[in-house]
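User: Second chain of the day. Same drill as before.
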Amino acid sequence: MDAIIIERSAYEELQTGFNSFVNKMKAMANRGTDKKMGKWLDNSEVISSLHISLRTLQTLRDNGTLAYSQIERKIYYKPEDIEKIMHKVNDRKKDACWRTHDKEARQSKQCEQGQQSV
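Assistant: Same format as last time:
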């Protein structure tokens, strides 16, 4: 077995560097535990809260209007992202209502509420 002899100051400098490295690794490992996951919504919850179809939800994801995360085949949304686009969805519904309904429907305030009647 070979022995390596180094000066005390070199050993202490090496030990200080190693301890600093260990402390940084511990801090990095603990960084994720400070954050809380929070509640995420799935497709069905978003569809029911926005009153939209699955296809509309897909379009919102595709055009970048709605942020999402996907784990395997399941898609999740942050509640704050849903709240951000809620007014956009309602405005689109109103626009569609104005375009498709006749003068009577416009005057009856159905479009102002974002509702469409058959």
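The chain is about 60% helix and 10% strand.

User: Great, on to the next one.
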